[in-house]
């Protein structure tokens, strides 16, 4: 659902941004408004961003290979991170530069009806794109707030499109305000101020996107709800008596790795343990379908060992011991 919904939102945003970018550049050519130029570059950068997201989604569908045995699901994270960099460098920094240039060398806006008309059209088009992104996100968001959804979502496309569309709408309002005040006062400096505000907004959104996608690239665990389902599915109370420790990792938005050390009874036969592990894996996949890669290691639970705390050797990311002298 997240993949198809994300694709629909991306295509809607791409179509809107291409149309908007063309209209903004036409308006800039006739009016000389720097806000229009900054907004045109912003829309063009957004169009490139959506193209990157589509490419990332396509590349992530490749089959696993011996060199990449866990597949290419993280391609979507990589391209989402590139989007944040493009938005920061092309969109935000260019707008700030153009705004300062306009303030240093202001000139009156010509043919005011061009920028005003294009901005109104752009607000309508971006509202359509934003509505599509909201509609596609709601089934995945559930009871989460929008801030929590952006922070916790494992599929990067919808949060990226949501923040881009929100930034675009706010930027259009800022551009319209800058152009409006410049027309009312006859002072082109206000157009430059509006342009700088657009740039600062884009930089802030880019920083948020970069932080979120960086976390996904580093590797995030399953969410609290999925973790609870996995824990409940592992223990059967007969052969598997408890989870000694467990680690989960998203290999991609729709692919989860589960690794756990499980406690079994000391007098169980190897065949019984193997059957119990197979049954636990089946229960996990039924409870959390995205759990595609599962490794369960049987062990004998010891209260004494448990009291010592996490085992550094068995815990990913645990402290490394220096090599012994020979």
Structure description:
Helices cover 66% and strands 10% of the residues. It has 326 residues and is mainly alpha-helical. It has a three-stranded mixed beta sheet with strand order 1-2-3. A hairpin with a 2-residue loop joins strand 1 and strand 2 (255-264). It is elongated and about 90 Å long. The model is unreliable at 315-326 (pLDDT under 50).
Describe the structure concisely for a colleague.
By secondary structure, the chain is mainly α. Helices cover 66% and strands 10% of the residues.
- Radius of gyration from the alpha-carbon trace, in angstroms: 26 Å
Please identify the structural class as seen in this structure.
Answer: mainly alpha
Order of strands side by side in the largest beta sheet? 1-2-3
Beta-strand percent range:
5-15%
How is the main sheet built?
Answer: 3 strands, mixed
Q: Please report the distance between the alpha carbons of the first and last residues.
A: 56 Å
Report the mean per-residue pLDDT as an integer.
82
Number of strands: 3
- Secondary-structure element string: HHHHHHHHEEHEH
Low-confidence stretches: 315-326
Fraction of residues in helix: 55-70%
Alpha plus pi helix count: 10
What is the approximate shape? elongated
């Amino acid at each position: 659902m997240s993949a198809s919904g994300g694709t629909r939102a991306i295509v809607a945003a791409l179509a809107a941004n291409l149309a908007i970018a063309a209209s903004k550049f036409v308006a800039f050519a006739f009016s000389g408004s720097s806000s229009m130029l900054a907004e045109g570059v912003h829309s063009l950068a957004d169009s490139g961003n959506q193209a990157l997201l589509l490419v990332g989604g396509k590349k992530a569908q490749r089959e696993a290979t011996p060199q990449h045995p866990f597949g290419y699901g993280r391609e979507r994270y990589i391209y989402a991170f590139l989007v944040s960099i493009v938005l920061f460098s092309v969109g935000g920094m260019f707008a700030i530069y153009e705004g300062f240039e306009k303030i240093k060398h202001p000139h009156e806006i010509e043919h005011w009806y061009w920028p005003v008309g294009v901005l109104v059209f752009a607000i309508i088009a971006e509202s359509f794109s934003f509505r599509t992104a909201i509609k596609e996100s709601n089934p995945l968001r559930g009871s989460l707030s929008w801030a929590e959804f952006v922070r916790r979502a494992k599929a990067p496309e919808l949060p990226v499109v949501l923040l881009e569309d929100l930034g675009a709408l706010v930027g259009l309002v800022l551009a319209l305000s800058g152009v409006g005040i410049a027309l009312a006062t006859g002072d082109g400096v206000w157009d430059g101020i509006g342009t700088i505000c657009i740039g600062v907004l884009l930089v802030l959104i880019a920083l948020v996107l970069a932080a979120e996608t960086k976390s996904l690239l580093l590797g995030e665990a399953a969410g609290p709800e999925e973790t609870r389902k996995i824990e409940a599915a592992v223990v059967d109370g007969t052969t598997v008596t408890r989870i000694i420790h467990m680690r989960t990792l998203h290999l991609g938005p729709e692919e989860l790795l589960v690794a756990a050390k499980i406690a079994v009874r000391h007098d169980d036969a190897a065949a019984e343990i193997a059957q119990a592990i197979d049954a636990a894996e089946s229960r996990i996949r039924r409870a959390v379908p995205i759990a595609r890669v599962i490794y369960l290691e049987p062990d004998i639970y010891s209260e004494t060992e448990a009291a010592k705390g996490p085992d550094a050797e068995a815990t990913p990311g645990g402290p490394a011991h220096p090599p012994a002298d020979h």
